[in-house]
Amino acid sequence: MTTTPVLEAIDETLETQGRPPLNVIYEWLTTVDHKKIGLMYIVYALIFLVIGGFEAILMRIQLAIPNNHFVSPQVFNQLFTMHGTTMVFFMGMPILFGMGNYLVPLMIGARDMAFPRLNAFSFWVSAFAGLLLYYSYIGGSGLYAAGSAPDVGWFAYAPLTSKVFSPGHSTDYWTLAVFLSGIGSIGTALNIVTTILCMRCKGMKMSRMPLLPWLYLVMSGLVFVAVSPLTAAQVMLTLDRYLGAHFFDTQAGGSAILWMHFFWIFGHPEVYVLVLPAFAFANEIIPVFSRKAMFGYPAMVAASVSIGFISLSVWAHHMFTAGLGPAGNTFFVFATMVISVPTGIKIFNWLATIWGGKIIFAVPMMFMVAFLFQFLIAGLTGIMLSAAPFNWQLSASYFVVAHFHYVLVGAIVFSLFSAFYYWYPKVTGKMMDETLGKWHFWLFLIGFHLTFDFMHVPGILGMPRRIYTYEAGRGWDTLNFIVGVGAIFQAIGTLILVYNMIHSYYKGKQAGHDPWDAWTLEWSVPSPPPSYNFAIEPTVSSRRPLWDLKHPEDPDSDYES
Amino acid sequence: MTTITTASRIPIDGPVETPWKLPYRGTIGMACLIIAESAIFIIFVVAYIYYIGKSLSGPTPTQVLELPIFGTICLLSSSIFVHLSVSALRKENYRASTLHLGITVLLGTIFLATTAREWYHLIHDEGLTIKTNLFGTTYYSLVGLHATHVVIGLIMLSLVLGFSLAGKVKEEHSEKLEVLSLYWHFVDAVWVVVFLVVYVLGR
């Protein structure tokens, strides 16, 4: 092997310390560096996570005891609308795109994304969309002096969104914000696909690519076919509201069901857009902390791709109660059940990866183990809900709310927290505090289970979602109180995470290049990585280039075909 | 310069089995855009088909729509000319490339003019607007969405034509012009669908 110059020796990155703050701000505002854009995405999403979480706490206070009037009914409607919209479009999507932006080029040995300026554009458009949504609290009254924040629910069913039922501009803020966020998402997805297909370093064939870029590839492909319909539907809704078109105007023969179809053609694949990156983190983190190579790499890729395809044909399981007829019901029940096959393959592969491994229970791995359990349970309630007769009984009840929060929080947020602890050393060069991390894990875990385990029960007992308050003595009181207590635990856990991130940035141990003894390319560069990532384009000959480097006597390339 | 044994030493110029060639990013980027745009058009087409014959009042498509044969011929043949322009550019035949590009822009503009005339006729003579009925709603939004794409394509093609007339477009730009031509072919292909749905199936 040729002697390679050590990266520090040729690293001429500008020292950021001691520069005037204006220069630093200017640099961040105008940057096209994928790492800086990724970080901005993440910070912006974390701000929205705190806002959306705060809205959730307010709702839980309102529901903690019967006949409560902590907030007004109008405000309650706004809270659940804003909570849902914020968490899906301005927390979930941006934070996952941020992680992808940061990690994908580093993992495939590229110096930046394929279209750096498009990347910056996508970020700023998404950021603007978030501000636009929250500006509705100030500007939503508009000319007609009615309404402030949007209050039509996060899926904004027609005809509630028509001018007659939603006067003022609050719904327009929602429409425009979601539309713009869609433009940003499509831009970033386009960028990720192009980066992965066109910028891989030498030797990195698709069959040697780490699983994280693979899953981001599938996720981005889904964004094209899932987010675009929503964007189109928002255009139609805007035409309805501003130009008097009749797409969803039931008075003129328009169809409210059509909006449901358009929304859920987006809405269900969106779940997989959000969960595939969570799988991606698991695929990178579980092997490293089990000290084994990923079990069944080709099966993982195949399962991810088939999840992508099948997820396009399950949307109407959100609409069983709308009346699809026997043929439609049968098809969507079947398709929904089929999708549990590739997800099951994934779970078994993760278990097989852990099996017989030398497991290290660092904080990232603890979150991953919780992720596996909770994702499994979320999947099981999903199979229950996919059966149309069961669904008729429980649709729009708290059982459904508990089910999808199990996916979104129990699987996606846990995986995301794991990823934070895992890649934080790479991003900042400092380790996160383990003790605080364990406090965060246990508090959040207890809070999560208090909230979302107990939330299933009032659903089965008949408590509908989105209700403002309820009478005492229906058996819902204690359960709702426990759910509310859990929310407080989760909030404290999240605050510990935020404190830990800030604290460790200043006081954390130095991480070095490769604190976890990992195998993918991002750990070969200094932490934090220089702005050009790789001084010299790397060449890889297996799926775990750093393993080959550390164990030249037994490289992976001997085993991979 | 120190030698260290950690992972910061990554092998360079190692043996690679086959010459390392990845696709051009412009082409892939445009392909992604086309997939996303197709999804948007599919939604509008689905809405159009779903609402055929569901209008509560007139006018109906049969009463007011006429086949836009001339415009269609212009738009579809413009696709051929943009292709000729790209292949001429690749052969460094700059005069032919500019000429074919000019014809593309001209044909696209003619198509847009025929759409404008049709809309003028519908709005002015027939009194059909986006507010009138479901037919108006779906017709103007679908055809309008397509026309918007034609306008964007024409702006980009005209930019290239301007540079080309100034002698700035050379053989090394042929890949980029090809990416633009992909977009133009897509706009044409969408028109075929719109034509079939609006003027054949919907009438």
Description:
The complex is a heterodimer of chains A (561) and B (203). Chain A has 561 residues and is mainly alpha-helical. Helices cover 66% and strands 0% of the residues of chain A. Chain B has 203 residues and is mainly α. Chain B has a single domain (26-201), classed as Up-down Bundle (Four Helix Bundle (Hemerythrin (Met), subunit A)), CATH 1.20.120. Helix content of chain B is 71%, strand content 0%. Chain B has six helices and no strands. Chain B has helices at residues 25-50, 61-64, 69-90, 94-125, 134-165, 174-201. In chain B, helix 5 (134-165) runs antiparallel to helix 6 (174-201). The longest helix of chain B has 32 residues, at 94-125. The chains are: A mainly alpha (561), B mainly alpha (203). At the A-B interface, helix 1, helix 6, helix 7, helix 8 and helix 17 of A face helix 1 and helix 5 of B.
**CATH homologous superfamily classification of chain B:** Cytochrome c oxidase, subunit III, four-helix bundle
Q: In CATH terms, what is the architecture of chain B?
A: Up-down Bundle
Oligomer: heterodimer
Query: What is the CA–CA distance across the termini of chain A?
Result: 22 Å
Q: With helices defined by DSSP (H or I, 4 residues minimum), what is the helix count of chain A? A: 17
Query: How far is it from the N-terminal to the C-terminal residue of chain B, by CA?
Result: 77 Å
Q: How many β strands of chain A by DSSP?
A: 0
Strand content of chain A: under 5%
CATH architecture of chain A: Up-down Bundle
Uncertain ranges of chain B: 1-8
- Any idea what the shape of chain B is? elongated
Quickly name the level 1 CATH class of chain A. Answer: Mainly Alpha
The CATH topology of chain A corresponds to: Cytochrome C Oxidase, Chain A
* Rg over CA atoms of chain A: 24 Å
The CATH homology group name of chain A: Cytochrome c oxidase-like, subunit I domain
Following the backbone from N to C, one meets helices and strands of chain B in this order, namely: HHHHHH
Helix content of chain A: 55-70%
Give average pLDDT of chain B, whole number.
91
